[in-house]
Amino acid sequence: MADVDTAQEAPRRWAKDAIPVAEEVPPFTFVLVKLASRCNINCTYCYWFRDAEVYNKPAVLTIEAEDAFCERLEQHIEEFELDHFVLIFHGGEPLLFPKHRFVEFQEKLLDIEDRTGCEISRGVCTNAILIDQEWADILKSYNVTVSVSLDGPPDIHDKYRVDFKGRGTHADTLRGIECLRAEGIEPGLISVCNPQTDPEQVLSYVVEKLRIKEFDILPPDATHSDNPPQISDYFIKLFDVWYDKYAAQGVRIRTLDAMIQGLVGNLSVSDTVGLGPIDTVTLMTDGSLEPLDVLRIVGDGSTKTDTNVLRNALQDVQDDPRWRESFEASMQLCETCGRLSVGSTIQASIAKVGSASSLISGKGFLQPSLSSIRRMPPHRQRGRTPET
Ligand code: SF4
Predict the structure, then answer these.
(1) Distance from the alpha carbon of residue 219 to the mean position of ligand 1, in angstroms
(2) Mean pLDDT over residues 58-64, rounded?
(3) I need a labelling partner for 154 at 20 to 30 A (CA). Which of 96, 207, 276, 321 fits?
(4) Which residues of 116-140 are buried (b: 16+ CB within 10 A; e: fewer)?
(5) 39 Cα: distance to centroid of ligand 1 (angstroms)
(6) What is the mean pLDDT of residues 86-106?
């Protein structure tokens, strides 16, 4: 699993009127921890392996990097007197990390909590295929929240989320979800939209069949130069079905939340949509620190920095030119989007799609949005009311 679900966990520490100038990056309170740089399946849309650099990284987080990270984390918490920190365990597939090492890592984190008094919230994003009774026990006993990648019913999920023989993985993922539920863990869900499918099918499957009310449906990761398929019709219908049928039932879809936040002029905490800072720090398996890992779709080594927990403090990455470039791109409209003949809040709502998800390879992170998404905000001005 490699789809980032930081909006669910990352603290909302940026105030609407406090878009920082470049020098002012508050102390980090969230790190995406890559426990594995390999995966047990072979999704055709996977962004992670578009960057060959990941194959040069150790298959799992090295013990040296793990220990150095724990040391840096404790120093960071003490230096900035933090009372809450968030770690999301990620991959590749993070559950390729050996179970005994996962347990030892959690114990080290609990020790840091004891020594510093700082609460360290932990979550894992997984394809759930490796979940068994033992993993479920471990995750439960260390209070690690779980987000599972599942794209909808089998015919939608199995089109792209396949194993190395091209076979669909829906049944295996569902087995993992059931194993978690048997242990009393209610997982979150992340789907990637397939614009050729009907979003109503995904919504009814997730809400009515899986009984999950809070989840996310993400645009597929692509650069502007990939010329990806239009996603506006999909998201327009998703919005309408959600608003007409599910909103009154308390169903929440984070990407739609982020779009609405952008429309009313608020900063977004989504990595994908809306104007708002992306201050994600990614810990790679060799201890190196990078910006938001999805940005690696731009090409080989595109998220590489010169910082590593073996040599640097966590906060040092803010001064690395590559990390800084991605951070600043998330706070601005590129020239093309700035010229759009739409209101400023609508510009804000589309900005992140340009800066984080549709980069032009080799031309930096501040690039035009996917043009198709421009149709979406005006659509919402029709004045619909949800059915009750
Ligand atoms: S689960 Fe799929 S999307 Fe996630 S890392 Fe593995 S291949 Fe990539």
Answers:
(1) 15
(2) 98
(3) 96
(4) bebebbbbbbbbbbbbeeebbebbe
(5) 6
(6) 98
- Residue with the smallest CA separation from ligand 1 atom 2 is 43
Cα 285 to ligand 1 centre (Å)? 16
Tally of CB atoms within 10 A around 216: 23
Question: In order of start, what are the domains of the chain with their CATH numbers?
Answer: 7-382 (3.20.20.70)
Nearest protein Cα to ligand 1, atom 3: 46
The protein residue with its alpha carbon nearest to ligand 1, atom 4, reads 1
Instruction: Identify the three-state secondary structure at position 379.
Output: helix
Q: What does the alpha-carbon distance between residue 279 and residue 175 come to, in Å, rounded to a whole number? A: 35
Q: Which has more confidence, 345 or 263?
A: 263
Q: How far does the centroid of ligand 1 lie from the alpha carbon of residue 43, in Å?
A: 5
Closest CA to 187 of 153, 216, 163: 216
Ligand 1 residue neighbourhood (C-beta within 6 Å): 1-2, 39, 41-43, 46, 48, 91-93, 127, 149
Closest ligand 1 atom number to CA of residue 92: 5
pLDDT of residue 76: 98
CB proximity list for 317: less than 8 A, separation 6 or greater:
281, 289, 290, 291, 305, 307, 323
Please report, as a single letter, which amino acid is at residue 154.
Answer: P
The DSSP 8-state label assigned to residue 296 in this structure reads G
In this model, does residue 372 exceed pLDDT 70? Answer: no
Note the pLDDT of residue 343.
Answer: 46
**Cβ atoms of 35 and 287 closer than 8 Å:** no
Q: How far apart are CA 320 and CA 285, in angstroms?
A: 19
pLDDT band for position 92 (50/70/90)?
A: very high
Q: What is the pLDDT of residues 189-214, one digit of tens each?
A: 999 999 999 999 999 999 999 999 99
Q: How far is the CA of 3 from the centre of ligand 1 (A)?
A: 8
Sign of CA dihedral 10, 15, 17, 18: negative
Place of tokens 């984390």: 73
